[in-house]
Design a protein that fits this description.
There is one protein chain. This protein has 155 residues and is an alpha+beta fold. The chain folds into two domains: 6-58, no CATH class; 70-154, Glutaredoxin (3-Layer(aba) Sandwich). It contains seven helices and four strands. It has helices spanning 6-14, 19-30, 35-45, 49-58, 78-82, 85-96, 139-154; strands at 70-75, 110-115, 127-129, 132-134. A four-stranded mixed β-sheet has the order 2-1-3-4, covered by helices on one side. The longest helix has 16 residues, at 139-154. The protein binds FE2/S2 (inorganic) cluster. FE2/S2 (inorganic) cluster is lined by residues 75, 77-80, 117-118, 120-121, 124, 126. FE2/S2 (inorganic) cluster binds at residues 75, 77-80, 117-118, 120-121, 124, 126.
Amino acid sequence: MNIDIQPFIDRYRAADGNIITLLQDIQHECGYIPEDVVFALSDALDIPASSFFGVATFYTQFHLHPRGKTIVTACCGTACHVKGAERIIQAAERELGVTEEHPTSEDGQFTLERVACLGTCSLAPVVLLNGEVHAKMSPDKLRREILRFKEAIHD
Ligand code: FES
């Protein structure tokens, strides 16, 4: 990603920051944590790149790859699994043309994420659409929701 890293350095120094605040700043600006930005900041600040990646991979809030504008978060916890989460995920993968290895759609509009229990098991199976809870989801219901988002993109 072709981006000026100086503002990150300035904010990091001004706030007497740490790696977490620096990663948050990068993600806020870039939408994710680009590898080349990490390496450039590692050189400039004399912090090992492994320290950045160690933190970035530990916390689920950080993303090392570009994400879509719409995030479909499917719960794979036990309650959701028992109630058919896998069929819902397969429907989403077909609808979006994504896989677990390539979770973001070609057009960059959608990312399908899998998470462990969202803490709302009584609503299982649960899917979040851009953070909004959708309870008692089914493959058909999710396909309709995804279509609604797709139509909104083209409006
Ligand atoms: S297992 Fe899905 S919300 Fe708990």
